[in-house]
């Protein structure tokens, strides 16, 4: 049952058996992960197909070192064309790729076990609240829009030191056709009841431009 279905040469029947197992199990894996991950339709489709795609690549390489190196280089280029995902999405893709390698080597039972067992294990861990950290729930995403002419490097340091327990600058980007900057911070307030006073003081310093103080999550990590 756990032996490879491939012989010295891969037949069409063996390949289509691998393809069917990889696709069906991949769809089931994506469905289980979608119960816990805030996924989109594109994420569901991609995760469903990754086990088959990786399995097909491994099957076609079939010990050819030159082809393996060439395909590895081609896959590495995808990183520069892909947006950074959340930890949940990255974990799902890595699990699907690991199972795809097993499928590509003909070990169908191992591929199924990898996908379903890790999906259920992930579902179990995500359902537990043992690893939740209370300080993380208090973290907020602060976005401040400032004019292009404003020197913002230490403009808000005094206000931050008075109202914030911690502050980490995440980055800066231009908005409004380059006429303004948007600063992003990960902050934790000393006293949540002083939120209005904090925002009022920031408005005075940034010329009453847009300010946003939002609940923080990994999906908001992009500027």
What would your notes on this structure say?
The model has no long low-confidence stretch (mean pLDDT 79). The chain has eight helices and four strands, in the order ααααααβαββαβ. The protein starts with 11 loop residues before the first helix and ends in an 8-residue tail after the last strand. β2 and β3 form a beta hairpin. It is an alpha+beta fold and 223 residues long. The chain has helices at residues 12-34, 41-61, 65-78, 87-104, 108-127, 134-137, 157-163, 195-205; strands at residues 140-147, 164-175, 180-189, 211-215. It is elongated, with a radius of gyration of 24 Å.
Condensed summary:
This protein is an alpha+beta fold and 223 residues long. It has eight helices and four strands, in the order ααααααβαββαβ.
Which key terms come to mind for this protein?
about 15% strand, elongated, about 220 residues, alpha+beta, single chain, 4 strands, four-stranded antiparallel β-sheet
DSSP helical segment count: 8
| Major beta sheet, strand line-up | 2-3-1-4
The count of DSSP E runs of length 2 or more, i.e. the number of strands, is 4
Radius of gyration: 24 Å
H-E string: HHHHHHEHEEHE
Helix/strand structural class: alpha+beta
Termini separation comes to 49 Å
Low-confidence stretches: none
Coarse shape? elongated
Helix content: 40-55%
């Amino acid at each position: 049952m756990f032996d490879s279905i491939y012989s010295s040469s891969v037949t069409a029947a063996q390949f289509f058996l691998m393809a069917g197992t990889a696709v069906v199990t991949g769809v089931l894996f994506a469905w289980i992960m979608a119960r816990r991950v805030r996924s989109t339709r594109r994420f569901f489709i991609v995760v469903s197909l990754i086990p088959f795609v990786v399995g097909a690549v491994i099957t076609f390489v079939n010990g050819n070192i030159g082809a393996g190196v060439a395909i590895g280089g081609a896959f590495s280029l995808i990183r520069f064309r892909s947006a950074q995902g959340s930890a949940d999405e990255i974990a799902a893709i890595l699990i699907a790729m690991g199972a795809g390698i097993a499928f590509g080597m003909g070990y169908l039972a191992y591929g199924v076990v990898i996908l379903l067992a890790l999906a259920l294990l992930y579902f179990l861990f995500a359902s537990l609240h043992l690893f939740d950290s209370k300080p993380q729930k208090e973290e907020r995403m602060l976005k401040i829009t400032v004019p292009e002419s404003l020197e913002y490097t230490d403009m808000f340091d005094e206000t931050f030191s008075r109202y914030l327990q911690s502050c980490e600058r995440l980055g800066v980007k231009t908005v409004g056709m380059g006429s303004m900057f948007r600063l992003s911070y990960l902050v934790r307030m000393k006293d949540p009841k002083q939120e209005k006073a904090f925002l009022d003081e920031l408005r005075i310093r940034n010329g009453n431009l847009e300010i946003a103080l939002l609940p923080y999550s990994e999906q908001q990590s992009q500027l």
